[in-house]
Amino acid sequence: MDKALDVAPQAPAIRHQFRFEGSGGEYFKIWIVNLALSIVTLGIFSAWAKVRSKRYFYGNTYIGDHAFDYHGSPLRILVGRLIAAGILLLYGLSAAFLKWFVVVIGIALFFATPWLVNASLRFNARNSSYRNIRFNFDGSYAEAFGAYILWPLLAVVTLSTTIPLARRARVQYNINNHSFGGRYFDAQLPGRSMYLIYLGAIGLLAGFAAAMGFLVLIAYLLAVARDASLASVLALLAEQVNHSVLSAIFLVVYVTVFLCMTTFIQAKVLNLALNHTSLSARYKFDATISAAKMIDLVLGNLFLMLVTLGLFYPWARVRTVEYLVENIAVTGGDGIEEFTSDLVSGQGAVGEEVANFFDVDVGL
Amino acid sequence: MPPTIQGRYFFPLSARFVEAAAAVQDGTFKVTDTTGVPLASLPLPSVRVSSRLGAMRRRLEFPDGASFETTDNDAVDSLMRGSGLLHRLEKSWRLALTSILCVGAATALFVLYGIPASAGWLARHTSQSWARYTEDQTLEALDKVALHPSKLTARQQQHYRRVFAGVAAQAPRGVGGYHLLFRNAPAIGPNAFALPDGSVIMTDQILPLIKRDEEIQGVFAHELSHVDRAHGLQRIYQAALVPAAIAFVTGDASQLGHFASILPGILLQSAYSREFEQQADDDAVQTLRRMGKSPAALADLLERMERKVCGPKECGPNWLGSHPATALRAKRLRQF
Fold first, then answer.
1. Which residues of chain B make contact with A52, given a CB cutoff of 8 A?
2. Whole-prediction pTM value?
3. Domain annotation for chain B: domains and CATH numbers
4. How high is the ipTM of this complex?
């Protein structure tokens, strides 16, 4: 370990708020042109488009006077994508034609998940840098198996009562195996706080249910006030509301409630995790992300994307990232000059792309 | 003095930097600090320049892990003769708007022709043994979940088999190419459906609604069209192609992208399905005509089925439905 950093002089700690300097309009042009090129090239260019997109968001995220950099190689991503698409196609077709092969792929994916998670996190970390220093990730297969397979299985056995602890295992696995310039990030989350977050989410669900019940009750009371019997109210409803409208309402309510719950948990966990994260004991992170504001953003984005046939997507992404980034800060002295990088080699993107295509949840 | 680029020089593999200036001289890339002391000097081709993107600062990376960072994008472009083609494309609002039209047109073409054509091609080139295998598995699954042994008497079954054979004789594969299966399906209600390899399932619940054999002949003709046009297989391929296409276009595995793609996916699938139903109705009309029967009989049965399921009112507009509205179908059938 580097003496200069660990036995730090009493430099005054400065709090640096993260900043985002990208704009929706600028990103829109980049996104749509790259999308058109991806289509024209039958998908080949999509790997380059992905890299440009990531570079845009990294390069516009600042701490102090320096931005992040993304260095991923489009060719590697393309190879990863082709392999992932092949597996996905095989999977989709065998679901129809060869049921037993689905089981084979399922078992293979089950045991490959820890590897996929690690490969994805490693590819991303090694291709990310700040101030000329690369990040790194070096979690082991065994640890990933615990965080991504055993903990979730335990949550099933314990009838979901250990979901908060499983989530904590995943978050801690993610953060604690990341390093910057040879120094590790460290996060230890209190289990009690994790449980409080999930209780809050359940409270939110109960609130939704109560609100729905209340609406039905109001409708019923109104009907009674008009001297109508319950049966006639139901008949009226059945007459007015047909199957399609009912299923549409159900879909909207389901998506809304689901997004509210997951966004609530996501925002709260992110806050908790960052507030307990430090780098090499010198730098402490903190976050002030509001769950209500995030829910507002996510639902608003979804609505605007549907209304604009997807054209709002670049603005949706920019304003979400902007909100998240600008509510994160790091406090520490100026010792960052002493960080040195020990990594120059890259690696393949197969794991990252397969994980992406199969929606393996590698994030916090 | 050659033109210089102002920026920051980061020492090899280090977060430490100094303000510096870079210039190219005789094919050599040289970096000096503000007082003119040389920091780095290397052949131009060994410098890796990140491509220009938005208003972002550029990073020029050296093989030893050092790098030079600058906001002077124009100077980098002129010094390194880097192709800023992508950036020029991404800069213009006019090109962005053109791209919207391109993407929109490509999406429309793909949805209208690409997916149906490729699903159709795949279905036509799927071997019969695959279709048989799929059918067996589908039937097995259905028998477990929703279907029960039929309660029809042997005489009733024999009667409908004869009617079915009459219709099958008009279809491309002939009498031996299709089978009629009877199942009791209280959960599904009055219905008939075709499986990929040529089996047609008729639920017991449809029986009380049939007034004349002509009506169920129309239903059989409709289902046989599904078999002959491999609609079942096409749906399987569409189900695999639609999400793949949406994932490709959005290029995004995030939750936002995921949810935004569900509704268009459902709408698209049911739109394809409604088109199949219309095709099958049209084919049924042709078959019934050849047999000298009236397509209006099928319309009568369809309306009775709807009344049974949805009550006295019609089921209503169904933009999510797999079938076109019954009123529309009946009207089309009666027009012939």
1. 51, 53, 86
2. 0.81
3. 4-86 (2.30.29.30), 117-335 (no CATH)
4. 0.82
